[in-house]
Predict the structure.
Amino acid sequence: MTAQILSARPVVDKIKHGLKERCEQLKRSGVTPGMTVVLVGNNPASLSYIKLKGKLCEEVGARFTLVQMPENISAVEFSRQLEKINLDSSVHGLIVQLPVPSQLRHLDLANMVTPEKDIDGFHNENTQALFAGTTDLKLLLPCTPKGIIHLLRDYDVEIESKHVVVIGRSLIVGKPLSMLLSNMNATVTLAHSKTKNLHALTRKADIVIAAFGKGHHLDSSYFDPATKTVVIDVGTNIIGGKLAGDVDFDSVKNVVQAISPVPGGVGPMTVVSLIENLISAAEAGIKKGIK
Ligand code: NAP
């Protein structure tokens, strides 16, 4: 069996096209969607992620601003400056790029961004929608889970009534994703580092989503060809200087129905979902009479 490759490219292009149109519509109403990313210090990896966000903003016609703050900024000064951006009506989406330096780690960053501008989807008011059972991708939901659902849907992978094993229970990927899938009527198993006999779970799963950050850990022994599993690889690890997923793509592609590649899978889906959240935030502002 050779797996279908669930490449992000065609899906991203389609979503981008729709976002461009929504952005033009917003501009006709007098609003140019604006994203601001706050970076404390100048971590090179953060800067390269931010560049991707800026490029995509530009491609859909949105405004992009990078606010760089000094590495040694105090928590008080950081909070003051963040609040200023929260109040700026030309900013529709605000992100604090992680990681932040140690003197800021005690801050409740997720809840310091005003919920209407929280395009990362981390604010309690936004994650609450997941607890309440939403399946509405127009809400400000976390971007990686949202991107994964877009990817599955676009490749016609059925979610309802399927058994999905999500590996990794982080607040940004595994937990919100498991809730979203459950809201979409999947039966979800959320596995983690203390899970026993992961093989037995993955070998029987219709869909396996690997989001645990262990490069090439899932090899072909984790899959039974008879199950025809769909595999989504969220992992971004560096092996031998190259980006690598949590799944050993070369061996696994021969024993599963479909698999998303790394790079070129979940990563680009995450970034486009962030821009989708930005456009949705700007549209919601208009509905509330805020321009
Ligand atoms: P994280 O905070 O790094 O947490 C790792 C999770 O995996 C924890 O829940 C941990 O279990 C679990 N885990 C660790 N080792 C395991 C093992 N051997 N078997 C089963 N579970 C195990 O998670 P994250 O931030 O979601 O990141 C996970 C991976 O996704 C990383 O490679 C990250 O770079 C990548 N990522 C990619 C994107 C993207 O857009 N492509 C976005 C976000 C993250 P415990 O809870 O028991 O410790």
